[in-house]
Design brief:
The protein has four helices and no strands. With 83 residues, the protein is mainly α.
C-alpha cells in the first residue's frame, strides 16, 4: 500500500499510542499487526524500532480482545486538548 506522508505519520503515531489497538490501525489503514511491524521497521530509525517493539510486545491494550473492559476508548482523554 502507498500512503501519503500524513497517513504514514498517523500510522506511526497510532502504533506508538498505548491505547490504540492494532485492530484500529487495520480498520483505518488496512495494516494488520504483522504489517504494522514491517511498516514501523521501514519508517523509523532502528533504535526507535527496538524501543517501540519492546514497548508494545505483550501490551494488552494493543489488542482489543486482551484489553480490559474498562478501556473503552483508543486514546488518553488529554491527548486531543484544544489549545
Amino acid at each position: 500500500m502507498v500512503f501519503s506522508e500524513s497517513e504514514e505519520s498517523r500510522v506511526i503515531e497510532m502504533a506508538w499510542e498505548d491505547r490504540t489497538p492494532f485492530e484500529a490501525i487495520e480498520l483505518q489503514f488496512g495494516l494488520n499487526e504483522q504489517a504494522v511491524i514491517i511498516f514501523m521497521r521501514r519508517h523509523i530509525k532502528p533504535s526507535s524500532f527496538k524501543l517501540w517493539r519492546s514497548r508494545v510486545s505483550g501490551r494488552k491494550t494493543k489488542h482489543t480482545k486482551l484489553r480490559s473492559p474498562e478501556v473503552g476508548r483508543a486514546y488518553c482523554p488529554t491527548q486531543y486538548k484544544n489549545k
